[in-house]
Design a protein that fits this description.
InterPro entries: RNA_pol_sigma70_r4, RNA_pol_sigma_r3/r4-like, WH-like_DNA-bd_sf. This protein is mainly α and about 200 residues long. The chain has eight helices and no strands.
């Protein structure tokens, strides 16, 4: 396991601890509710969202520690067409690979480039090379196989693994955003937990 991966696991364990603290804080707030706090069924929905977020983080930690997707019964190469759709905008991927290309209809901002860099950290060097060749440069599987001295079957396998890992990374991004928002806001007297978690869960 690499040093960066160990740091990532440590970070998500810290996030899990923070989420549990938030859940305890929301539960305790029932006894000191005010006009600025969430009440009734909304409070229960909020607790449910927090509990779900904790499960998501635990799932992510298990995946990172074992290197395998927990409870995955079907590889991405055996999923339906809808499940195998490209997770990153192909036009943005083209601009990412070749910045400033005049023929590309969609540009990539610095923030979007950083986000793509983050997603691609989860794939191996060979998976990244294959993914960028096919989805960034527009090469066919056959051409990519020829250039990388691999079989078309190997190209399909590398792309499938990269897609699965990017999907995982996109889910983690929403969880991380929630944790960052909490850290920024924890000094405030009143936190709008409801809006925070409705937003976070809608992006998972």
């Amino acid at each position: 396991m690499t040093r960066n991966m160990k740091k990532l696991i440590t970070s998500y364990k810290a996030t899990k601890k923070q989420l549990k603290s938030m859940l305890a804080q929301v539960t305790n707030s029932d006894q000191r509710a005010s006009a600025d706090c969430v009440h009734g069924t909304d409070q229960e929905a909020l607790r449910s969202s927090l509990a779900a977020s904790i499960r998501d983080v635990e799932y992510a930690i298990l995946w990172l520690e074992t290197g395998r997707q927990p409870d995955n019964q079907r590889g991405i190469e055996r999923r339906s067409k809808e499940q195998r759709e490209i997770l990153l905008d192909p036009f943005k991927m083209q601009s990412y690979v070749t910045p400033g290309t005049g023929g590309c209809r969609v540009g990539v901002s610095d923030a979007e480039r950083d986000l793509i860099d983050f997603y691609l950290q989860f794939v191996t060097e060979k998976e990244r090379e294959c993914y960028l060749m096919v989805h960034g440069s527009g090469f066919t599987h056959e051409k990519a196989a020829e250039m990388l001295f691999l079989s078309r079957g190997n190209i399909s396998t590398l792309l499938s693994r990269a897609q699965q890992k990017i999907e995982f990374a996109k889910n983690l991004t929403a969880i991380l955003a929630m944790a960052v928002f909490f850290l920024i806001s924890r000094g405030a007297k009143t936190l709008n937990y409801e809006r925070l978690f409705v937003w976070g869960r809608s992006h998972l």
